[in-house]
Amino acid sequence: MLVGVLALQGAFREHIEKLEACGARGREVRKPRELEGVEALIIPGGESTAIGRLMVEFSLLEPIRRRGEQGMPIWGTCAGMVLLAKDIIDSQQTRLSLMDMKVRRNAFGRQVDSFETDLSIPPLGSEPFRGVFIRAPYAEEVGPGVEVLAAVDGKIVAARQGKLLATAFHPELTGDLRFHQYFLKNAQ
Amino acid sequence: MAAAEKGTWTVKTGLAEMLKGGVIMDVTTPEQAKIAEEAGACAVMALERVPADIRAAGGVARMADPTVILRIMDAVTIPVMAKVRIGHFVEAQILEALGVDYIDESEVLTPADEEFHINKHAFKVPFVCGARNLGEALRRIGEGAAMIRTKGEPGTGNVVEAVRHMRMVMAEIRRLVNLPEEELMTYAKNIQAPYELVLETKKLGRLPVVNFAAGGIATPADAALMMQLGADGIFVGSGIFKSADPMKRARAIVAATTHYNDPHVLAEVSKDLGEAMPGIDIATLSQEQRMQERGW
Q1: Is the pTM of this model over 0.90?
Q2: What would you report as the CA-atom Rg of chain B, rounded to the nearest whole angstrom?
Q3: Helices B30-39 + B66-75 axis angle, to 10
Q4: What positions of B carry a catalytic annotation?
Q5: Is the CA virtual torsion B38, B99, A174, B213 positive or negative?
Q6: A26 — contact with chain B (CB < 8 Å)?
Q7: How many separate domains does chain A show?
Q8: Of B22, B125, B259, the CB nearest to A50
């Protein structure tokens, strides 16, 4: 499977390494034509305002939104989760508005409050998954079509809406491939 | 949930990973910070004066007034960094208490200690430090820096020193990768770097942390040059707000950092930017005026 990784800014290299470790092919996407032939897309962590601006400037926002509406699997991590959301609390910033959820940015605090912790994510099996949260968002509410996959103290940090996935944490910064494998399986 | 661990190495280096491919801009006011955020900066560096003005003013340059930093933190949602003097761990304690997202232990300010850098492992907030070569970079990482940048020559608008430092680090890594095992301890001794970090760098084929370019970047072409030389991202100090049209130049440098390998995009964004900051020929600076000589 050929998976695009939006490479405008942020941790795109790590996602490509993980995809390749899972046996998929990764492609950096910076322009609309690089979306052609891509069967699924990852929007990496980074700064959501910077990525959103560059998506508009380089004409990627509408094509990605259209492909998402047509059923292309998309997974957003951290900034990617923010960009997938319909609602971003206290913000008018650019977004794809594909997932029916209300997210809060930098919701756990500033960098000194960034943390890692073990998460229980049932679709990944009984072994805990190490969640790395960096100035992370969470979802305060999700719509009826959205399944909650993981929470921290009642705050939603992983969710799925059909072929769309969002995580507030960074599986690409760990040695654990299970979330990437789950995304690829869900994308089939 | 299981206990949350804060200030871990993964979390400190992780923020730097998220900044990659982005531009970190020096700002001195909330208004400038907003311009930087709107232009697509991935973080801002909160300062009282940009390096060009520090250079012009002379005297002792210190950590900025907390009020300046807090106002900038209130103005934007992107990470806010701030500078402390080399070795001044109390300035660092103050910045950590303010909640800044990254501390730059910086040669742009006047050093507070001519022998020792800060023990950065002692902090929850991550640090970035400048380096001119691999040994210096690995010494800083050994002290706990979670991100490295070239020193370049700040406040000059002249990219030549940043190029020199990036080429030096990259050349040393290429050489290290090809060294046989039995030469590694002597290599570590010669470059005055911690042995374990030398081994890790050899294994990775790159620095163990993110490596940005800084010190003299003034144009989109400068930014793309540093990216093509192997930088993970760009710091722009005086180059934006000392230019004629900061918003336009900031946007152009952001676009050039993303599309650093695409000369057509670089040509497009380089058009009609107005005057760049006035530059300084490094040869006209005396030894004492060269900020890159600070730190050891």
Answers
A1: yes
A2: 18
A3: 40
A4: 83
A5: positive
A6: no
A7: 1
A8: B22
Tokens 């991550």 appear where? Answer: B126
CA-atom Rg of chain A in angstroms: 15
- The CATH number for A42's domain is 3.40.50.880
Of A47, A114, A130, A167, the closest CA to residue B9 belongs to A114
A57, A78, A140, A147: the catalytic one is A78
| Domain assignment of residue A78, given as a range | 2-187
Please say if A172 is a catalytic residue: yes
Taking an 8 Å cut-off on Cβ atoms, the answer to whether A118 and B259 are in contact is: no
Q: What share of chain A is helix, strand, coil (3-state, %, to 5)?
A: 30, 30, 35
Using alpha carbons, select from B265, B258, B250 the residue that is nearest to residue B219.
Answer: B250
pLDDT, one tens digit per residue, over A43-95 is 999 999 999 999 999 999 999 999 999 999 999 999 999 999 999 999 999 99
The total of other beta-carbon atoms located within 10 Å of residue A147's CB is 12
Q: Is B99 on the interface with A (CB under 8 A)?
A: yes
Question: What length is written for chain B?
Answer: 296
Around B112, how many Cα atoms within 13 Å sit in the side-chain half-sphere?
Answer: 17
Helices B195-204, B134-142: axis angle to 10 degrees equals 120
* Ramachandran area for residue A29 (φ above 0: left; ψ -120 to 50: alpha; else beta): beta
Q: Is A137 on the interface with B (CB under 8 A)?
A: no
What are the two backbone dihedrals, phi and then psi, of residue B96, each rounded to the nearest 5 degrees? Answer: -65, -40
Q: What is the pLDDT of residues B179-227, one digit of tens each?
A: 999 999 999 999 999 999 999 999 999 999 999 999 999 999 999 999 9
Query: CA-CA-CA-CA torsion for B281, B240, A10, A5, nearest 10 degrees?
Result: -100
Which residues share a beta bridge with B84?
B105
d(CA B133, CA B216): 17
Can you tell me which residue has the tokens 């540093």? B226
